Structure formats: C-alpha cells, structure tokens
Amino acid sequence: MEHAVHDKVGLEMGRRVAARFREQPALLQIARDNLDRWLRRNADAPALIRCYREWLAILERPLGEICQTLCADTEEGRRLRQSSPFAGVLPPSEVWSIKATIRERHAKTAA
Questions:
Q1: Could you give the angle at the alpha carbon of 23 between the alpha carbons of 19 and 25, nearest 5°?
Q2: Other beta carbons less than 10 A from residue 9's beta carbon
Q3: In this predicted model, what pLDDT tens digit does every residue of 52-75 receive, in sequence order?
C-alpha cells in the first residue's frame, strides 16, 4: 500500500479511535495494556521503546489532548500513528472497512 494511503488509513482510524474514547474513556486502558506488553516484548529495541514511552506520556494528558493528537493531520500526527498503540479499540470489521474504503477511493483517483 502506498505511503499516502497508509497515512489516510491511519488518520481515519485515529479519528474513529478518538470518537470511541470520547464515548468510552475507559478504552484508553487497551492502549496502556498494549504498551506495557510491547515494552516487555521489545525491551531490546531502543527505537521501539522510545516510541512506546512517547505514547505513554501522551496517554497521561487530558482526553481532549489525546484525541487531538490522534486526529492531527500533521507530520507529528502521522509519525505517531505509525506506532499506534490502539490495536483492539476498533473491531476488525471496522478496520477492514476503513482500509477497503480508502484503497477504493485511492484507486479511483489514481485511475
């Protein structure tokens, strides 16, 4: 998948995750649990550890700031979404639907 498509998928998933958090803030625990598990599993990968710690710090912020970060269509937002700890917040069917819709749109505009 092209980088631009990845970025669009990541942004849309970020928007949906943010909406979910606004409805159910307790879902933030999924991200914290993922990060805790990944920190243990990848203890010998300094670059990953740095990304995970950055997300842990973001998750300490107020909910509105976390949601802004998830929805930021900026270089920093794109960079952060590449190591998103939000696996499991959206159901797989929704993730697949987002990817299919964006790929289809991209294919139409590329043709």
A1: 100
A2: 20
A3: 999 999 999 999 999 999 999 999
Model pTM?
A: 0.89
CB atoms within 10 A of CB 18: 20
Q: Backbone dihedral region of 88: left (phi > 0), alpha (psi from -120 to 50 degrees) or beta? A: left
b/e map of 72-111 (b: 16 or more CB within 10 Å)? eeeeebbebbeebbbeebbeeeebeebbeebeeebeeeee
Q: Are 102 and 5 in contact (CB under 8 A)?
A: yes
**Whole-angstrom Cα distance, residue 48 to residue 52?**
6
Q: Which residue has the tokens 């937002």?
A: 77
How many C-beta atoms lie closer than 10 Å to residue 15's C-beta? 15
